Amino acid sequence: MLVEMVIDGLDVPEDGSARDSAADLLVRVAGGDQRAFAELYDLLSPRVFALILRVVVNRSQSEEVLQEVFLEIWQSAARFAPNRGQGRSWVLTIAHGRAVDRVRASQSSTDRDVRVGVRDFVPARNVVEEAVEERLEGSRVVMALSGLPEAQQEALILAYYGGYSQSEISALIGAPLGTVKTRMRDGLTRLRGELGVST
Amino acid sequence: MNEQEFQELAAGHALHALSADDERRFMLASAEHPEWRTEVGLDEEAAAALAAMVEPVQPPPALRQALLAQISTLAQDPAAPGDTGLETAPPVSDGTASESASADSVAAAPADPTIPD
Fold it and tell me: What is the pLDDT of residues B68-96, one digit of tens each?
């Protein structure tokens, strides 16, 4: 039986091929298709909003950032190149950049979430509305990250979910800046390996 | 800068964790060495995968309505001819003119539950 996994618009049939519906929608958005924009929003906004909320923490600021992100997507969709990456990643990269800009700019940086353990991220087991596929993908990433040395996990999580810069991380954990840079590089390389991200 | 240095910066770039100085060095080197950029896309993909670790959260419906109203009158950027291949680069904090413009339009139209569909 052919089992299909649908992960935020990335359809992954068992044979490993993938149809990237976020990418298809982005191409239509670039052509000024407002209906495609609404579809893309419905497809990705819960994931994008969750990411922004986790980084920014403050709810009304997170809503503003979500709005900025989707306006930027509308304006710059023509710069998305389907041959160079997934639509979902493109959107999430923009969202992460905007969220990090917001926490760096805001005075509320002291409120930032500094939890760094992977165990803080283990997806809830009993959320009925959450699609099974979503949980599978979340578990896959948590598993992949668990395979990394703790110092590398810490560097990745502080940067991605804490929104901290390399020098801030260096001060936070009391490690030399060069060490933090190396951990981030090594950690991301290992994560790519664990997740099977390749050309 | 050698390629190893560049790839170290690329990891920090993908996680939006570089200092302003390092980000500038990264962008300059990236413009000079298009052949080093393949890895950058892979780093960004791996970083974006981390977003799957949190439970999705449904944003307020009013926000969707406000956005759809805004884009109906908002001009789109054409594809840049000199595309650097770094289209996923985050906006720099000091911002370009078009970014401040979009930020202004956001401020001018906050999510408002009274906005009609």
Answer: 999 999 999 987 654 544 544 444 444 34
The pair of three-digit structure tokens given for residue A148, joined into one six-digit string: 């990394």
- According to DSSP, residue B57 is labeled -
- Tell me, what's the ipTM? 0.82
Residues 6+ apart with CB under 8 A from B12: A159, A166, A181, A184, A185, B18, B22, B26
* Residue A49: pLDDT band with limits 50, 70, 90: very high
Instruction: At A120, list the tokens.
Output: 């803080």
Contact: B90, A98; criterion CB under 8 Å: yes
- With both helix axes pointing from N to C terminus, report the angle between A21-30 and A59-76 in degrees, rounded to the nearest 10: 70
Partners of A165 on chain B (C-beta within 8 Å) are 17-19
Chain A contacts of B67, Cβ < 8 Å?
Answer: 41, 67, 70-71
- In the block, residue with structure tokens 């909320």: A53
Phi, psi dihedrals of residue A12, rounded to the nearest 5°: -120, 95
Q: What is the pLDDT of residues A109-131, one digit of tens each?
A: 455 555 555 556 544 444 444 45
Q: What secondary structure does DSSP assign to B63-78, as a single string?
A: HHHHHHHHHTTPPPPP
